[in-house]
Amino acid sequence: MSNNFQSLLENRRTIYSIGKNVKHSTEALTEIIENAIIHSPSSFNSQSSRAVLLFGQEHEAFWKVVFEKLKEFLRDEEAEARTQAKIASFAAGVGTVLFFEDMDVVKMMQDQFPAYADNFPVWSEHSTAMAQLATWTALAEQGVGASLQHYNPIIDDQVHAKWEIPSNWKLRAQLVLGSIEAPAGEKSFIDNAVRFKVFK
């Protein structure tokens, strides 16, 4: 059994080889991304997800920030060269979406619903994950390649300072996007019997 939604999910792949040959304008990409995040679900409709969209020089500046921070952890020239090549592959794209969660919203929900207080930080993670998947899938549907990266929390201070991000926004992931310059690799799946239990 197949349907359009299933096909969209299957089409969303991690694309590491990206470029700047995207047919969409920055405005069109922004609309796709914003729409995906706006319509992503959140617990109690808390709408805790936030995003910073970086294009052009701002996108490239972000990956320079990442590399400069990573250099503090590299022990030799070989590791630095490998890391620089990896970061350059991300900078080769057209943009990066920084996904945040507004922790003030999480705290507000905890105060309003104390019986569920311990769950709201977890549900916040669910919210950002769904926003990330929705955005990634929406871009893939438009033929835009992307990969999800996680250089937080080591870059948090630098990102907050450079782009004047509110302190209550917690960085959760970075989705780098661009034209698909090479297809995704083969993907394997564990056996369904390991993953699922079905009772009838």
From TrEMBL:
Keywords: Cytoplasm, Oxidoreductase
Oxidoreductase in keyword set: yes
InterPro entries: Frm2/Hbn1, Nitroreductase, Nitroreductase-like
GO molecular function, one term: oxidoreductase activity
Domain Nitroreductase residue range list: 10-178
Pfam families in the cross-refs: Nitroreductase
Name by which UniProt lists this protein: Nitroreductase
UniProt KW Ribosomal protein keyword: no
Family matches, as CDD domains: Frm2-like
Gene Ontology cellular-component terms listed: cytoplasm
Localization terms from the record: Cytoplasm
BP GO terms, sorted: cellular response to oxidative stress
